[in-house]
Write a structure and sequence with these properties.
- By secondary structure, this protein is α/β, with parallel strands linked by helices.
- The chain contains 8 helices and 7 strands.
- The chain has helices at 16-27, 39-51, 66-80, 103-128, 153-173, 191-204, 208-217, 227-238; strands spanning 7-11, 31-36, 56-60, 85-88, 134-139, 178-185, 249-252.
- β2, α2 (39-51) and β3 (56-60) form a beta-alpha-beta unit.
- α1 (16-27) packs parallel to α2 (39-51), α4 packs parallel to α5 (153-173) and α6 crosses α7 (208-217).
- The protein is globular.
- It starts with 6 loop residues before the first strand and ends in a 7-residue tail after the last strand.
């Protein structure tokens, strides 16, 4: 599954799944542009990629801003000459009951998780179409398939949108030899998930350890994902081994969802 000579963009690359994916792509041979709204986090990931002997670039980018997306992709192309792989990972959420959610929550979550994913995909596809080559991997969630333990209903809706966008984009970009797939992580140990765990424990008046135990008890394999579990799937989908896979949404969740 070598990615030698390939150029990858990873959004939300500063932490968690994004950072793990950037490093896994680099270990497979790719040059990586680490994109994050936090410039220090983007730089830390880019430095880690460089330490693996790969070319790297750190760019501060708000993926909810179309002008920023355009500048980011143009910068990557100027630096590396092309874009072969996009991993659309940037995302936001907060833990809330459906009756607690606000218009501000809708605007914030959909702006990044929906708008950001679509317009990063579209902008990168403009670079891939003339070359008749490319791979796009969108990070969705089992929340988008109705997982009851989702952080909130708006987040679930945004990830359902990512799955739908993946399917239609795959069909419409297939004539240009561009593969588009999604990964649907289940419970994954990241800073975001730890915050949600703490919020849930506080709301229910129990210990974080008790919420942790309950969380893992619903996973058939008995363990949550590490970010590297998602990163490994992303590397596979970006590799020649997956050249005939497109339009799919792969659950990586220890067996929680079977569709």
């Amino acid at each position: 599954m070598t990615l030698e000579g390939r150029v990858a963009i990873v959004t939300g690359a500063g932490n968690g799944i994004g950072r793990a994916t950037a490093l896994a792509l680099a270990q497979a041979g790719a040059s990586v542009a680490a994109i994050d709204i936090d410039p220090a986090a983007a730089t830390a990931t880019a430095d880690a990629v460089a330490a693996l002997g790969r070319r790297s670039l750190a760019l501060e980018t708000d993926v909810g801003d179309l002008g920023a997306i355009d500048k980011m992709v143009a910068h990557v192309v100027d630096a590396f000459g092309a874009v072969d792989i996009l991993v659309n990972n940037a995302g936001v959420t907060r833990r809330a009951h459906i009756m607690e959610l606000t218009e501000a929550d809708w605007d914030r979550i959909m702006r990044v998780n929906g708008k950001g994913v679509f317009f990063c995909l579209q902008r990168v596809a403009r670079e891939m179409i003339p070359r008749r080559s490319g791979v796009i991997v969108n990070i969705a969630s089992i929340a988008g398939k109705g997982y009851a333990g989702t952080s909130n209903a708006i987040y679930a809706g945004s990830k359902g949108a990512v799955i739908a966008i993946t399917r239609i984009a795959a069909l419409q970009l297939a004539p240009h030899n561009i593969n588009v797939n999604a990964i649907c992580p289940g419970i994954t140990v990241t800073a975001l998930s730890r915050d949600n765990l703490a919020t849930r424990a506080r709301d229910e008046g129990v210990s974080v350890e008790e919420i942790f135990r309950r969380r893992n008890s619903v996973i058939p394999l008995g363990r949550a994902n590490d970010p590297e579990d998602i990163a490994g799937t992303a590397v596979y989908l970006a590799s020649p081994a997956a050249r005939n896979i497109t339009g799919q949404s792969f659950n990586v969740d220890g067996g929680v969802r079977l569709d």
